Amino acid sequence: MKTWLITGCSTGFGRALAQAVLAHGDQAVITARDVEQIKDLAEAAPGRALALPLDVTDPGQVRAAVTAAQERFGGIDVLVNNAGIGYFAAIEESTDEEIRRIFDINVFGLSDVIRAVLPGMRVRRSGTIVNFSSIGGLRAFPAVGYYAATKFAVEGLTDALRQEVAPLGITTLLVEPGPFRTDWAGRSAHETLPEREIADYAGTAGAQRAAFRADTGKEPGDPHAAARAIITALAADPHPQRLLLGGPAYSMAIEQLESMLAEIRANEALTKSADFDGPAA
């Protein structure tokens, strides 16, 4: 029986994963900013679930949640950093307040939870850290540039972390979902619309924003199937370092990587000309 600590469990992936973990027979520390929204999850698995309030931007709550998890279950085997928000604005339309808010939650909050959990994992020389990125961590889109920037940051942080903790018996997994029915572009999008929309971006950021909203509730991805896929991935030995979720994510990732590789190869000579011993300009 493993003990999981999962952030952002009120809706979407977090809630689906908490349900799947408990159905699998494991223990779970289920967290959300509003603990009332997750009490039903804990009540469904008495003795194996603990519901705690956790705003990942509050260092005190982060420390308190990790301490409570360790005191209740003896340690954390799997940390899942799922808590996050979107922001639907062109780069120029974005405001300082919203840019800082999305980085505080998606990057700095995630980092704080990792750093709070790592000491216990290091002592036990075991553990897994699962960080939710996105297909937007591999490929950016108009209207969500700052969201993509946070997910690119999560990708880099996780890749470095993987190399640092591997000798200590700790592993990492990057989860990269495509479009899923998590209300990411529904209620969440309406909470993070730009204060002003610039007409010059109507055909790019504006069109993409409208497409996100039009597809709300019709996305092909099933959060419950995604939760089962994550559990299956972590059961493999060794488990993958990254897990794309959903057919669209797979297709978009392959297209992006093949395009990047073709361009890199096309400019090989120019790239190498920048070396001291490269060909003369």
UniProtKB/TrEMBL annotation:
InterPro entries from the UniProt entry: KR_dom (IPR057326), NAD(P)-bd_dom_sf (IPR036291), Sc_DH/Rdtase_CS (IPR020904), SDR_fam (IPR002347), SDR_oxidoreductase (IPR051911)
A molecular function GO annotation: oxidoreductase activity
UniProt keyword terms in alphabetical order: Oxidoreductase
CDD domains per the UniProt record, alphabetical: 17beta-HSD-like_SDR_c
Pfam family, one: adh_short
Domain Ketoreductase: 2-187
Highest taxon above the source species: Bacteria
NCBIfam families from the UniProt entry: PRK06180.1
Family named by the database record: Belongs to the short-chain dehydrogenases/reductases (SDR) family.
PANTHER family: SHORT CHAIN DEHYDROGENASE (PTHR43976), SHORT-CHAIN DEHYDROGENASE_REDUCTASE FAMILY PROTEIN (PTHR43976:SF16)
UniProt name for this protein: NAD(P)-dependent dehydrogenase (Short-subunit alcohol dehydrogenase family)
Lineage: Bacteria, Bacillati, Actinomycetota, Actinomycetes, Streptosporangiales
